[in-house]
Design the sequence.
């Protein structure tokens, strides 16, 4: 099934069930006030939501027309956002870009950081631009939303905790990353609020495209209205199952935890990229010169994913960069 | 005033107002269901909570007897937990312990990491011990709970967003830190759930001990029933005001954000320490040999703070290490 969250006057928004074709939706206040509540009560709640979903798709229930502009991220805020980096080519290229070595255990231990989750951007929200030297970039990713995961869960047992799949724009400030990582405590200032796709899908909704803890479909990015990339999201070195094992090694993960894949990236250069940092590094490698600047006010990024019939699955992340009232320097 | 959260059958617990002497409390369901809700509605809610607090202290209202065992951390879960490291001596000693250099900008830019906040331990909860080579340690800290802080807030304007002050045991797995930090993405597996003091105090409740964005009182630690340290928490190199400016540089901070001071530590060795890593490093420096092991099942840590009349301010963090059902190796 397909769920979404309408913006409302409460921080967690209002849970809705969305039709398979993204055109119609139904409010479900009697089942759950918001998605966090549904996740904390999934065993009872999911079958009822699924019933509504089936009724919508069979035209058996009164619906309203979907306007994606009115949707917030499926979880407008979360208790936990952990972002992995499971595409090896992305790690190698962005480290090269900042003159850092890939970690020695690149292929045996997933990279993962604890991200800020206190307030996410909506899928159509503007991205604030503070200063040019912050090096504003987008990062197209896939992510999973989890039920409660007990500490010590292994990859082979992780599938059953994956409740929903979403897309992410993990907004990154490349200019602040080297200084911040040099201090040794990970990202904070360099990773402001991320935005997520309007719709969240259960794994079964993806059919055979969901396999081995990976989404085997291209992630489509359009930058300033032009094709930017369509790498296969299934090319993850570590599956979501392995990312969950890594995250749960020393603690439980609460229901509603989001785990991201990291920037989707393939070895095949004809597939393009899902962030500017990679494109810039490839320019430098091929011509010695970086020609693509980071994002500036007015630039737009569109991120979506289609099934093999061309049906838009998660709705469209579409964000425009706007000058922030907060400035520096 | 003094607030607390009773454990209950809901994840956010039940908000209570606690008497100045920690002995009596009153439930306040008509004012706010939980502390997060009170923080999101502070302007309206705080004067009413204060009225209840005054009535308790004047014996004008029906109360129940406080049993600290029944208290959860003031926020049993939070949307954001950012932990600074504002005591320079702690940074220098723990980096020396793991053979790492202090950052070049040690005294000009605060160290801060994004911590896990999806489920905290209660102040009397056991701390799980998974494996001896994880190097289980406690870290005694002070922290502030904030109202919504707008992006770009400067230190000079930060005081007005500080709503409550609490103590922290920031549980740390020293054995996992070097490997994790070497990967460059900060702490995750090495920082499992933290625990907070039973009671949260408004800054004015500390009187003159709250000054310049610092708590000028000793933090008392007892390890296995013996004195372990009483360093002055006021000896922060960066004040909470400066930590807030750092955290809000590129984003808003949602109401309910917790910012920690980092392990309280003074240059004066007679004041002891607030974590085992420091004591171990001092042993190594003075005798060449580390004699204090990390925590093992059965060990206990008590953390509290008293005012100059000897009144316990925040209640008592008291945690025992227990063998986890999850094991490794």
Sequence:
């Amino acid at each position: 099934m397909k769920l979404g969250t309408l913006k409302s006057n409460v921080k967690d928004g209002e849970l809705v069930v969305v039709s398979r074709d993204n055109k119609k939706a139904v409010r479900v206040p009697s089942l759950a006030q918001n998605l966090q509540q549904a996740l904390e009560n999934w065993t009872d709640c999911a079958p009822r939501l699924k019933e509504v979903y089936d009724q919508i798709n069979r035209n058996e229930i009164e619906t309203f027309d979907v306007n994606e502009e009115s949707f917030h991220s499926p979880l407008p805020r979360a208790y936990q956002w952990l972002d992995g980096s499971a595409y090896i080519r992305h790690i190698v290229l962005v480290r090269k870009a900042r003159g850092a070595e890939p970690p020695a255990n690149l292929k045996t231990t997933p990279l993962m950081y604890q991200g800020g989750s206190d307030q996410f951007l909506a899928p159509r929200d503007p991205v604030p631009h503070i200063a040019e030297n912050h090096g504003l970039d987008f990062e197209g990713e896939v992510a999973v939303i989890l039920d409660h995961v007990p500490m010590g869960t292994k990859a082979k047992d992780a599938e059953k905790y994956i409740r929903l799949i979403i897309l992410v724009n993990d907004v990154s400030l490349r200019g602040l990353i080297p200084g911040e990582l040099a201090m040794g405590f990970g990202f904070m200032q360099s990773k402001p609020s991320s935005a997520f796709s309007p719709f969240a899908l259960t794994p079964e909704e993806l059919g055979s495209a969901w396999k081995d803890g990976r989404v085997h479909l291209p992630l489509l990015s359009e930058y300033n209205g032009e094709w930017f990339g369509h790498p296969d999201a299934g090319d993850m070195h570590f599956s979501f199952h392995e990312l969950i094992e890594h995250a749960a090694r020393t603690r439980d993960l609460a229901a509603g935890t989001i785990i991201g894949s990291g920037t989707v990236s393939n070895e095949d250069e004809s597939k393009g990229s899902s962030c500017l940092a990679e494109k810039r590094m490839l320019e430098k490698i091929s011509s010695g010169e970086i020609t693509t600047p980071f994002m500036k006010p007015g630039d737009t990024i569109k991120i979506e994913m289609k099934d093999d019939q061309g049906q838009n699955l998660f709705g469209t992340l579409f964000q425009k960069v706007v000058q922030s009232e907060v400035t520096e320097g």
The radius of gyration of chain B is 19 Å.
